[in-house]
């Protein structure tokens, strides 16, 4: 309660702004993930690793646009390329352009994709990836992971972080199917569980077009695959003629130079990318093997979009691709590893019921002494302390992601000194929790 009082005292202008904004925007925000009670913090400026809010406070940004701002806010190369494109190319002409082809070729090389198409958002990319899988296999159903989030596309709104009371045992039929998803077209399996997946595949394999999953789940803090799990999923897909779609909207470049699939050594048929590839501009993509992407070439499915591959976004994409070298990402990852080491030491020293989980330049503190392997484990972690830990940071000028399901990001703009602020803040919290 004292921390919430402090929050309210620190953020009167944000409260006013939210009241005003709520008259035109539902909840006063432009995406429901931006909202929290009593009100979100409204930002007026972002530079490097720092934000300024409407109350004039500076906040160290560890959310970094839900991981989209991997290169840092207003990265100078992104700014230079976008400004150059604005002056010399223009904003939109809905015809092919050399800039889009150049970025596509870069992604072929970096991500090992035969072919790809650009979109504006992760949601769109997931929708088209599912459509491509359905067109390719001529099957309708898909499988998704229990609790997993993949954007706003209807078919993937099944079992998104459901209340435990609503879902019953893991073997139960599909819960909470939204009104526009046909029953029997989405099957839900727990992450890290081959038994349930094999069961569904042996029963319904011939109806199933694809499995859609984050290779490492980054919408339940961070949940990593058991040794051999992803390879087993790949083998099961091959056996049943089911396509494997890896949603790398969140992992992508933050997981390593060529994303989580290459880092973990399992190749999907289709991949979706967004967030970190765009440097803050609305860029996403879906792509994969030429065999599957042939469905777009020969018209088995169509893919549209007025803004796809527009010059400003492509300029930002080229800048991000140039800036995110192996070396640059390794520097950020090393800072992340050092930060995690320090936080682990504090957890041990104060015997906190917590552990850290990381992938690439992202990390999180999970408030549980046992590893989290799936959604149900995740829901059993201590959300009360997780919320306090978040609020503690916000009240002291550190913005970790507002949803407790997110993780921090060490961008190319963060230094070790800045991450040390997180560490010392965590030490203060540990002391307070043990006092
Ligand atoms: N897939 C995953 C794994 C995501 O985390 C998100 C967004 O957070 C999406 C898809 C949807 O992306 P967008 O918000 O760009 O539509």
Strand content: 5-15%
What is the makeup of the main sheet?
7 strands, mixed
How would you describe the shape? globular
How many helices? The count is 15
- What is the C-level CATH assignment of the largest domain? Alpha Beta
**How many strand segments?**
14
Alpha carbon gap, first and last residue:
17 Å
The pLDDT mean sits at: 94
Helix content: 40-55%
CATH homologous superfamily of the largest domain, by name? Type I PLP-dependent aspartate aminotransferase-like (Major domain)
Strand order of the largest sheet: 4-10-9-8-7-5-6
Protein name: Aspartate aminotransferase family protein
Family: Belongs to the class-III pyridoxal-phosphate-dependent aminotransferase family.
Cofactor: pyridoxal 5'-phosphate
GO molecular function: transaminase activity
Can you characterise this structure?
This protein has 435 residues and is α/β, with parallel strands linked by helices. The chain folds into 2 domains: 2-70 and 325-434, Aspartate Aminotransferase, domain 1 (Alpha-Beta Complex); 76-323, Type I PLP-dependent aspartate aminotransferase-like (Major domain) (Aspartate Aminotransferase, domain 2, 3-Layer(aba) Sandwich), CATH 3.40.640. It contains 15 helices and 14 strands. It has helices at 2-10, 12-21, 76-88, 98-111, 122-137, 164-167, 194-204, 229-240, 259-264, 290-297, 311-323, 326-349, 375-379, 383-395, 416-434; strands spanning 43-47, 50-53, 58-61, 115-119, 141-145, 186-189, 208-213, 243-248, 270-273, 284-288, 355-359, 362-366, 398-399, 408-409. It has a 7-stranded mixed β-sheet, sandwiched between helices. A 4-stranded mixed β-sheet has the order 1-2-3-13. Helix 12 (326-349) packs parallel to helix 15. The longest helix is centred in the last third of the chain and has 24 residues, at 326-349. The radius of gyration is 22 Å and the shape is globular. 45% of the residues are buried. The model has no long low-confidence stretch (mean pLDDT 94). It binds pyridoxal-5'-phosphate. The site of pyridoxal-5'-phosphate has 15 residues, from helix 5.
């Amino acid at each position: 309660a004292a921390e919430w009082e402090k929050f309210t005292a620190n953020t009167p202008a944000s409260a006013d702004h939210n009241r005003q904004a709520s008259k035109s925007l539902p909840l006063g925000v432009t995406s429901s993930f931006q909202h929290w009670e009593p009100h979100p913090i409204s930002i007026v400026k972002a530079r490097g690793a720092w934000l300024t809010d409407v109350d004039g406070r500076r906040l160290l940004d560890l959310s970094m646009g839900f991981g989209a701002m991997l290169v840092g806010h207003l990265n100078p190369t992104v700014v230079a390329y976008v400004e150059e494109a604005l002056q010399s190319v223009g904003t939109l002409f809905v015809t092919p352009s050399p800039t889009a082809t150049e970025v596509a070729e870069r992604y072929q090389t970096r991500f090992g994709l035969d072919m790809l198409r650009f979109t504006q958002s992760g949601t769109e990319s997931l929708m088209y990836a599912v459509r491509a899988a359905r067109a390719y296999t001529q099957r309708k159903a898909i499988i998704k992971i229990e609790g997993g989030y993949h954007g706003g596309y209807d078919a993937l709104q099944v079992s998104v972080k459901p209340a435990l009371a609503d879902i019953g045992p893991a073997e139960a039929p599909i819960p909470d199917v939204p009104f526009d998803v046909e029953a029997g077209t989405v099957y839900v399996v727990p992450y890290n569980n081959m038994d349930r997946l094999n069961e569904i595949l042996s029963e319904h394999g011939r109806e199933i077009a694809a499995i859609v999953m984050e290779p490492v789940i980054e919408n339940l803090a961070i949940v990593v695959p058991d040794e051999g799990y992803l390879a087993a999923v790949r083998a099961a897909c091959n056996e049943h003629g089911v396509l494997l779609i890896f949603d790398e909207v969140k992992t992508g470049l933050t997981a390593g130079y060529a994303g989580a699939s290459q880092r973990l050594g399992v190749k999907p048929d289709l991949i979706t990318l967004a967030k970190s590839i765009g440097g803050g501009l609305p860029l996403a993509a879906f792509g994969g093997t030429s065999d599957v992407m042939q469905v777009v070439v020969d018209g088995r499915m169509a893919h549209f979009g007025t803004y796809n591959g527009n010059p400003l976004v492509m300029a930002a994409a080229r800048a991000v691709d140039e800036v995110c070298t192996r070396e640059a990402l390794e520097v950020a990852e090393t800072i992340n590893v050092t930060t995690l080491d320090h936080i682990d030491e504090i957890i041990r020293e104060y015997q906190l019921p917590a552990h850290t989980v990381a992938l690439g330049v992202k990390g999180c503190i999970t408030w549980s002494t046992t590893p989290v392997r799936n959604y149900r484990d995740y829901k059993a972690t201590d959300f009360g302390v997780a919320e306090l830990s978040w609020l503690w940071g916000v009240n002291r000028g550190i913005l970790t992601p507002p949803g407790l399901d997110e993780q921090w990001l060490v961008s190319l703009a963060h230094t070790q000194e800045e991450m040390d602020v997180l560490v010392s803040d965590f030490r203060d919290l540990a002391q307070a929790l043990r006092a």
